[in-house]
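note to self: dont lose this again. the chain is below, predicted strucutre after it. 200 aa total, dont forget to put it in the shared folder this time
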Amino acid sequence: MIRVLLVHDARLLRSGLAELLGKARDITATCTPWRSAERTARATRTDVCVADVDERNGESRDLTALMRHTSPPGCRLLVLATAGRPGPLRHAFEADALGFVNKDASPDQLLTAIRQVAAGERFVDPSLALGFLQASQLPLTQRELSVLSLAAEGASVAEIAASLHLTNGTVRNYMSAITRKTGARNRVDAICIAQRSGWL
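---
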């Protein structure tokens, strides 16, 4: 039996996916929103963690932190992603995700991906290929993307610093680097460029 931890904030979608997985004879699923994902990961023995990486909320969507808390430690990560958003794809790749499924994929494709990842095999949805190419050309680091993501939600420098455990000065340095790398005029322009490019 493949034990799946499904992480998604939208209750309706989470329930629908859980029902789909529950129909498979070889899969059992536990569902959780992101806010309790790490706690659930510690308490539930999981073979595959399936997480939606497109949900925006800065560092609270830290896949690496989530996978640190999974039990057993050998749990594998499969992400649900959108082709037009290279930023989340890069984040998932840097978190050592083994599987990548387009959210427009068929239910059968998701089940196939879960089984493949559970067996230790990589699964990459072909429709995400362009997104991966764009991700490889993304000018911002993952930390810079986290800072910019929080800024896009309206967080102040002090709030970003507290959320990411940084100093205010370090956050300002990141914002300066982001503005320079994106060719933006200011912070707001950098956010617009990043959102238009699918980085956030």
